[in-house]
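User: Here's a structure from my thesis project, written as structure tokens. My advisor, Dr. K., wants to see whether a designed sequence matches the one we expressed. Can you design one independently, without my sequence as a hint?
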């Protein structure tokens, strides 16, 4: 396991040079760049700008783990669904050009007037479509466990049964819903075979999630991907907060 950062919301106001410098200083050697934030790595970049981003990462010990889009596929409106698929494709192209390996997407709710199964199948089929495109660029699709109702693991499991393309993996998100039903272990067991290259965690100094149990589950499946801090509350000194997480992460991730 390796420790990295999602630029939501820690790092959201840093330009790319500052982001790379601060991650290196804190000992975070991987980053998922969240769309719309100050670093400005967006599909609108031209060819030269994309080469510049790739060069900056190539010259840094910090790895570009991937891009964090807000693309989602639950809308019953075919035009909205098509727009999100097309936007995902643009993120795949961008990710390839700047040297990343995956694009994060999300489910983001279940429309009230549509049968649940129909929406879950629609999301899964869309994931297969964008993953097939991504395979041609060496870019994975990472489904964040996200959204009202869709963050419930039985729904994620069903989406992934439909999304059977090998280029689709789950980005576990450390949500309160992970603990519902039969509990964390049972929910983790439900989807563990489809875990992707990234897991989103939160500030490990907080005890609002059973970190010891969760990291034990990751160790149990010999997880070797990135655990990326994605934290909404921004401290006064983000770099100091990052540094404070490093020894906690090392203890939690160490082989027992």
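Assistant: Designed independently from the structure alone:
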């Amino acid at each position: 396991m390796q420790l990295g950062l999602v630029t939501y919301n820690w790092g959201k106001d840093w330009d790319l040079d500052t982001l790379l410098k601060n991650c290196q200083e804190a000992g975070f050697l991987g980053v998922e760049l969240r769309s719309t934030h100050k670093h400005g790595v967006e599909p609108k970049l031209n060819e030269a700008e994309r080469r510049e981003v790739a060069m900056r990462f190539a010259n840094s010990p910090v790895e570009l783990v991937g891009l964090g889009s807000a693309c989602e596929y639950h809308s019953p409106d075919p035009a909205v669904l098509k727009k999100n698929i097309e936007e995902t494709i643009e993120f795949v192209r961008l990710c390839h050009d700047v040297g990343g390996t995956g694009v994060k997407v999300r489910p983001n709710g279940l429309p009230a007037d549509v049968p649940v199964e129909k929406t879950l199948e629609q999301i899964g089929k869309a994931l297969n479509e964008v993953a097939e495109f991504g395979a041609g660029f060496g870019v994975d699709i990472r489904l964040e466990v996200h959204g009202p109702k869709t963050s419930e693991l039985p729904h994620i499991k069903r989406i992934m049964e439909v999304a059977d393309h090998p280029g689709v993996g789950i980005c576990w998100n450390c949500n309160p819903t992970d603990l519902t039903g039969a509990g964390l272990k049972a929910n983790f067991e439900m989807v563990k075979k489809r875990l992707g290259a990234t897991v989103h965690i939160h500030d490990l100094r907080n005890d609002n999630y059973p970190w010891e149990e969760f990291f034990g589950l990751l160790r149990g499946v010999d997880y070797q991907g990135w655990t990326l801090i994605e934290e909404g509350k921004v401290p006064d000194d983000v770099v100091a907060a990052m540094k404070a997480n490093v020894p906690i992460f090392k203890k939690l991730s160490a082989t027992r």
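When you compare it with your expressed construct, this may help: The chain is about 40% helix and 15% strand.
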